[in-house]
Amino acid sequence: MSENYTDKSLDFRRDFRTVEQFKQDIKFRTEKEKFLVELYKKEMALRGHKVVIENNGVDNEGELLKKSNCEADYKISIDNGEPFLVDVKNSYLDSKWTFKTHSLKQYVKSDTSILIFWATGRLDGNHINLDRSSTCYGIISPSNISKILKTYEHYKEYTFGNKMCVRIPKVDFSKWLTIHKLKES
Fold first, then answer.
1. How confident is the model at residue 69 (pLDDT cuts 50, 70, 90)?
2. For residues 158 and 138, what is the distance between their CA atoms, to the nearest angstrom?
3. How many angstroms separate the CA atoms of 69 and 51, rounded?
4. Is residue 75 part of a domain?
5. What is the pTM of this model?
6. Domain presence at residue 58
7. How many CB atoms are located within 10 Å of the residue 99 CB?
8. Residue closest to 108 by CA, chosen among 145, 57, 163
């Protein structure tokens, strides 16, 4: 594990949430990301691909760490190919994706891709309410992340703690990745 620690303080990262709420959010998000990366592995197997997933970064257990880093959560290889770094993202909506610009810049810098799922519906703690009929997924490459940063307006998003973000409308999704629908039912 490298020493690629974020310069963002705990207070900045937790924004308007209490420390307790931030801990709960981290735990929930980590469990959701694990569920989604395993779903990706199952989906790829249904398509005839062998996927190996390794943990990467500081911690994929969902514990609050005083000092976190900006490394990708996972390292993935497909069909014994060269492993690549991936961060898992989710949008319960099908109409847009919203990303923090700071995170996108870190992905470009560290050559990390985004494995994104969208139109999932709101996932709860056990994820049984995943909307399998509408869920899509794909991988955005670091080069496309760089283009996204240059293409869309950067703005402060209240629901992301007033951090600078970009919003990508649904009509543009296919510009940045190959869209896949869930096969697993």
1. low
2. 26
3. 25
4. yes
5. 0.84
6. yes
7. 23
8. 145
Name the residue type at position 33. E
In total, how many domains does the chain have? 1
Q: Would strands 84-91 and 112-118 be described as parallel, antiparallel, or unpaired?
A: parallel
Query: CA–CA separation, 3 vs 58, rounded Å?
Result: 10
CA angle 89-76-116, nearest 5°? 20
Strands (E), 11-111: 51-55, 74-78, 84-91, 96-100
Q: What local confidence, expressed as pLDDT, does residue 161 receive?
A: 84
Residue 2: band (very low, low, confident or very high) from pLDDT cuts 50, 70, 90: very low
- At 1 the pLDDT is 37
Does 3 map to a domain? no
Q: Which residues pair with 84 in a beta bridge?
A: 76
Expressed as residue numbers, the domain containing 110 is 10-181
Q: Across residues 68-87, what is the average pLDDT?
A: 88
Match 């919203």 to its residue by tokens: 98
**All residues at 6 or more sequence positions from 84 whose CB lies less than 8 Å from its CB, including other chains:** 75, 76, 77, 111, 113
Q: Determine, yes or no, domain membership for 165.
A: yes
Output the domain CATH number for residue 83.
3.40.1350
pLDDT per residue as tens digits for the range 119-172: 998 887 667 789 999 999 999 999 999 999 999 999 999 988 889 999 999 999
pLDDT greater than 50 at residue 6: no
